[in-house]
Amino acid sequence: MTDRSQSVYQASWWLANGLPFRRFGLLLATMMSVCAYPVLFIYFHNIREAVFRQVFAPILIFLAVALAAWLVFGILSGTMAKGAFTALLFMLVFMNYSLIEGGIRTIVPDWRWWRIAPASLFLLINLALALRVFVRRPEGNSNLSKITVSIGSVYLALTIFNAANGMYTLAKAPRVESRPVVTDSPRAEDFLSISSDHRRPNFYFFIFDEYARQDVLKKYTGYDNTPFLKGLEHKGFSVSYSSHSGSDNTRVSIGNLLHFCYRYKSYTETVKGIKRPPLLEVFKKAGYKTYAISPVFQFDGDLVDVALKSTTVPAALSIEKTVIAGSFIVYLQRGGNEAIRADRLRLLKQVADIVEESAKNPKFLFYHILFPHEPFVFDENGDPVAYENMHNWADTRHYAGQLRFLSKKIDELTDTILEQDPHAVVLLQSDHGARYFSKSNLEERLACLNSVYLGGENVEIEGLGLINTLRLALTYALGLKLDTLEE
User: What burial letters (b/e) apply to 107-119, b meaning 16+ CB within 10 Å?
Assistant: First the structure.
């Protein structure tokens, strides 16, 4: 019998005979506990928004990898107890690979995944072989089993704690139906009788997610975005250099813009979606052909004539993608980077097509895109970003590079709009500023892009927030009588 055949036979024998069923069951439960922890952690911390069925796929993926690693390391080490211990360490590295790589690269910046991953695997293989040589007594196997099960027990306890905390949070969450009605929340029928003969210009409303204000951008990245903003002013746009959002939560900010007032204070109020958003209702009842896209809300079909769709799901909206993004699996999915790049470019091209499209009725476009929001897939020239830097906020060049590339695309879009339709209304905003710069405060996280073009008219918006700038544009476009709200 060859050495390899003997190792396989020995591992199979230990699995069937040498490892008591009770111990095997405990080790299997340990693997399941460790594999489930990162998935359930994210679920219970987002329990008011997440769907429980999203946890199954990533848990099964991690468990399949763990069982395969257990078998391989069991063969290498000689027993399933040793294999379980080594496989557990392997899974801790595998599931948290992005975090581990980030830590290593702070010490050795030139190292990348193609060096770190083989080195980690080499160390674990040598650990398994060392256990085979140095741990021969039955009590050694027993002690390794106890250590492995103890680690699993810690993860199980943490999962139970997070579950209890999540259930408590869910129980204490206010019911959406019980929220107080805001008196200044508008309805479409309140306004349409006003100025029925008002000329209806095409209205393009862009929300570029997480687009930071120029002063915050310069402070944290060193890049001065002022030339881009001055270029907008040269085209006839009004730009505010001191604007802010009312919230650093996307759902709250977008929800308030859809009501063009400060209706929501917490994202829990928007969990069930937004019934018939007044912004879309106003334009639809005013006779507009409506186009809309948003990664956080679905809109009523009768309010949207053309629903634009993204072909990729952001990690922030998917438990599976969020967990996988932190594991080694992300480095195996090499096509994801290009898929996101193609999706963003396709969505931007669709805007130009909409602008050039001839229509009997005026057009309203509500366009919320996760851009320059991570993942970072464009550098300043539009070239791909290394896979390991797609979520790298520590190096601010990646965020700044993606923002600079987007600014070039915005420049092209605004040129197209003004050439085709110089009397249009164009609103360029963000839902909030950049939220993950190290040591940034809340005021800086709220500081964001805010610019408007009202058919070439000169208007002053310096210091206005997003909601009041939108209300100003609605008054101009539809003849609505909207006062400035307290911010």
Answer: eeeeebbeebbee
Is residue 372 within 8 Å of 399, Cβ to Cβ? yes
Residue 46 φ then ψ, to 5° = -130, 35
Identify which of 371, 462, 461 has the alpha carbon closest to the alpha carbon of residue 425: 461
125's enclosing H/E stretch is helix 113-134
Cα gap 441→462, rounded to integer Å: 22
> Do 30 and 151 meet the contact criterion of CB atoms below 8 Å apart?
yes
DSSP 457: B
Give strand ranges (E) for 101-171: none
C-alpha distance across the termini of the chain, in Å? 80
Q: Are 24 and 148 in contact (CB under 8 A)?
A: no
Name the CATH topology of 184-478.
Alkaline Phosphatase, subunit A (3.40.720)
Residue 179, pLDDT score: 36
* Residue 306 identity: V
The order of strands in the sheet holding 203-208 is 238-239, 450-454, 425-429, 203-208, 363-369, 289-293, 306-307
Q: Which of 414, 450, 464 is nearest to 212 (CA)?
A: 450
Taking each helix axis as running N to C, give the angle between helix 138-172 and helix 80-95, from 0 to 180 degrees, rounded to the nearest 10.
40
Q: Between 1 and 120, where is the model more confident?
A: 120
Q: Nearest Cα to 32, choosing from 74, 5, 67, 3?
A: 67
Q: Which residue, among 423, 418, 432, has the nearest Cα to 457 in the 3D structure? A: 423
Domain ranges across the chain: 3-172, 184-478
pLDDT tens readout for residues 380-432: 999 999 877 888 898 999 999 999 999 999 999 999 999 999 999 999 999 99
SS3 state of residue 177: helix
